[in-house]
Amino acid sequence: MTAGVQEVVVYTRPGCPFCTSLRAGLRRQGLEFTEVNIWEDAEAAAIVRGIADGNETVPTVVVGEWQAVNPSASSVLDAVAEHAPDLVPESKPGLIDGALKAVGLRKEH
Questions:
Q1: Which of 64, 92, 94, 95 would bridge with 83, disulfide CB 3.0–4.6 Å?
Q2: What confidence tens digit (pLDDT) does each residue in 76-94 have?
Q3: What is the pTM of this model?
């Protein structure tokens, strides 16, 4: 387990359908994350290139020392459980609440 992991970072770019899908899956599960647009943050783009063999492939996710390019929501949740268990949602949202969070109509409290 990685000590002190404080956040899940999801690197994205506008118009990326894989990013949209991952964000929705993570929100549906109630996982809070920090989203960083690599088109607006040169340092973030450099981080993604370092992870993705020189490419700016998104979504790229970092949870402490765990890194993945285009992971599934379940892979991210597994990584959070292993590397940042304090960030695992206490409970999974219900079907309607999860769907509203997935499309961004309901925010975390």
A1: 64
A2: 999 999 999 999 888 666 5
A3: 0.81
- Spatial CA neighbour of 37 closest among 54, 19, 50: 19
Q: What is the largest CA-CA distance in the chain?
A: 40
Show the beta-strand stretches assigned E in the chain. Answer: 8-12, 34-37, 60-63, 66-69
Within 8 A by CB and 6+ apart from 37, the residues are 12, 13, 14, 44
- 2 — pLDDT class (breaks 50, 70, 90): very low
On whether the CB atoms of residues 83 and 62 are closer than 8 A, the answer is no
Q: Please answer whether residues 21 and 33 qualify as being in contact, where contact means their C-beta atoms are separated by less than 8 angstroms.
A: no
